[in-house]
Amino acid sequence: MSDYPSILLEQAVSQMSSLPGVGKKTALRLVLHMLRRSDDEVQAFADAFTRLKKEVVYCRECHNISDNELCPICSSTRRDHTTICVVENVQDVMSIENTGQYSGVYHVLGGVISPMDGVGPKDIEIDSLIERISRGDVQEVILALPTTMEGDTTNFYIYRRIQNTDRFQAGLRTQTGELRITQLARGVAVGNELEYTDEITLGRSIINRTEFTT
Q1: For position 102, which CATH number holds?
Q2: Residue 86, CB half-sphere, CA atoms under 13 Å: how many?
């Protein structure tokens, strides 16, 4: 016999608890709260998620979520388009933006290399990053991936890919227009995800970033 007095309630709780970080008790509290709201409020809630799923797109340049073909950051003339900050996911973009310490643009990989999980270089947006760098306008690439084994593996792979570009090799030969590859200062603890790092620490890590070393 079910613990819930209604099958519909049980189904709603089951869907709510499928969200990350939401347990059964929290899910039940949220569902009962929604049940007490007006029909219009519940419909507006449902419509917001339906429109999000159907209408949101990914920026053709950086792969951040957007309402248009180009996200507001990539389309802004006030951003420094010569600096690209490479992050794992959309949450990381939001975390860095909240620091107010970065004025460049981003590149969202959509994951990190993790052989144990079956995720290889072709499963994330590395090729498009190399394409952006090869255009010749980029002066600095900031590697802002998690300080985990998977993040470090991805950093190293990207570094080696950049080293093999004509843009990077030409810069090393002539010492003019040299492309810098940097990483966050180690104010971010080893094993931390960026979205769980406080804004002050993350902001300082961006400001005090260092040259990437293998």
Answers
A1: 3.40.1360.10
A2: 32
